[in-house]
Write a structure and sequence with these properties.
Blueprint: H1 7-15, H2 19-26, E1 36-40, E2 56-61, E3 67-75, H3 83-98, E4 102-107, H4 111-117, E5 121-124, E6 127-129, E7 132-134, H5 145-150, H6 152-162, H7 169-179, H8 184-197, H9 200-212, H10 222-242, H11 244-262, H12 269-277, H13 281-291, H14 297-301
Parallel strand pairs: 3-4, 4-7
Antiparallel strand pairs: 1-2, 2-3, 5-6
Helix pairs in contact: 6-7, 6-8, 9-11, 10-11, 11-12, 11-13
Length: 304
């Protein structure tokens, strides 16, 4: 997962607190039955002059409006030994205040930091505490447009976490499509978050897919319009000069090359010529699908 500012995941959690229990479920944490999710005050000071501020506190409520679970959310982007002292206090302080069970969810954008954060914390005597940690590998893959529409913040998080992986288009395309259903503020912000997280190869691959479906996709943010504007204009010029079908094939050939480069399967000169010379857009699409998971370049073009 690419590194990003501390406030970015918190912005997603604040805009959609329902995302927090969903991520706990991804970690196989058993949650009590609940109907509502609310953000509460994150100042956990109680009867002490020392102030403790968690990044975010979310509470689950049952059908009767009674709190049933407190969730302390911490975004941890680097190693910090001091957290072994403050994290248990966050849990105990919120538990004492709300008088309900409390769980700590730590979000990390780096697997090394996540591994460190998962280490049990020794409290004393026979007491140990195990934080629940969500690293890049634990972020769910949102490949369904329906789920992306239902939880766009989860889709954005999934796109940021997995968009640069070999099968990244599987999460990028439904996410970009789902963003069209949002209000202007969220749509533009999330568009920028996703696009800024991608490396150059995946941006090019996504651009080609979006250009081929330009009747379906609309660029919603200033960044998206600026970044994709030139490619879109070039695609239109090529389509007018060479015909729509040929332009579509060329776009998919470029997308295939981008995916291969992103996976470290750069083709030799003859293979590259074969790709660029192919005018069968459906064949190119089959190669793109194989390129997302094939362990070798040969298996991309090998017919079953």
């Amino acid at each position: 997962m690419p590194s990003f500012p501390h406030e970015l995941p918190l912005a997603l959690f604040r805009r959609c607190p329902e995302l927090v229990p969903h991520l706990l479920k991804a970690l196989e944490v058993e949650l009590p039955p609940y109907r509502e999710v609310r953000i509460v005050e994150s100042n956990l000071t109680q009867l002490t002059p020392t102030e403790y501020h968690a990044d975010l506190v979310v509470t689950l409520y049952d059908d009767h409006g009674q709190p049933v679970l407190g969730i302390v959310v911490e975004v941890q982007l680097q190693l910090d030994p001091a957290k072994q002292w403050s994290w248990p206090w966050y849990v105990v302080g919120l538990r004492a205040r709300l008088q309900i069970p409390v769980v700590l969810l730590v979000f990390c954008d780096d697997e090394k930091v996540a591994s460190w954060a998962r280490r049990p914390i020794f409290i004393g005597g026979d007491w140990w505490y195990w934080p629940r940690v969500l690293g890049p590998e634990q972020v769910p893959w949102v490949k369904s447009r329906a789920l992306a529409v239902e939880l766009p913040e989860l889709a954005v998080l999934s796109a940021v976490a997995h968009g640069n992986e070999p099968a990244g288009l599987e999460v990028l395309l439904p996410t970009i499509d789902a963003l069209r259903t949002l209000d202007e503020d969220r749509k533009g912000f999330y568009y920028d978050v996703v696009l800024r997280s991608l490396n150059e190869a995946m941006r090019r691959a996504l651009e080609k897919e979006m250009t081929m479906q330009e009747g379906k996709y609309e660029y919603q943010s200033d960044f998206a319009r600026t970044y994709f504007g030139q490619g879109k204009a070039e695609g239109k010029a090529e389509g007018k000069a060479e015909g729509k079908a040929e332009g579509k094939a060329e776009g998919r050939a470029e997308a295939l090359l981008a995916v291969l480069e992103a996976r470290g399967l750069a083709p030799d000169a003859s293979t590259r010529e074969r790709i660029l010379g192919c005018t069968d857009s459906e064949q190119l699409q089959r190669w793109i699908v194989r390129a997302a998971t094939a362990p070798s370049l040969r298996e991309v073009f090998e017919e079953p």
